[in-house]
Amino acid sequence: MSESKIDIEAAKLLAEDLSRKLAQAGGDGEQLRALRDEVDSLRDILNGPNAQHFWITDRLRSMEVIFERAAVELLADGIKAGAYLSEIGRILGVR
């Protein structure tokens, strides 16, 4: 995959939306905490002065793994994994 295919603006929107959803979820399960950490890290990268595509890709892929492993736990907290997995795949250019 070419790094130039990453949609930075879409990644920012995704990170902001997920951040809001995670704040509303209020749960404290292990996977939810891990996802919050990844989203916070992605937001920091995207809002930093030197947002490297590699770092963005790495965070998105980490989030993708968490969603795939914890869909049931996240759904219980009001987070619909399928929609976010599709958006992450679109941003990464794989779906």
Number of domains: 1
Distance between the termini: 12 Å
Radius of gyration based on Cα positions: 13 Å
> Structural class of the secondary elements?
mainly alpha
| Mean pLDDT metric | 85
- Oligomeric state of shown chains: single chain
Uncertain ranges: none
Q: What does the largest sheet look like?
A: none
Count the helices. How many? 4
Q: Estimate percent helicity.
A: over 70%
Order of helices and strands: HHHH
What overall geometry do the principal axes of the alpha carbons give?
globular
E-strand count:
0
| Amount of beta strand | under 5%
Question: How would you characterize this protein structure?
Answer:
The protein is mostly helical and 95 residues long. The chain has one domain. Helices cover 76% and strands 0% of the residues. It has 4 helices and no strands. The chain is globular and about 35 Å long.
Task: Break the fold down into its secondary structure elements and pairings.
Elements: H1 8-25, H2 30-47, H3 53-76, H4 81-92
Keywords:
mainly alpha, 76% helix, 4 helices, 95 residues
Short description:
The protein is mainly α and 95 residues long. It has 4 helices and no strands. The N and C termini lie close together (12 Å).
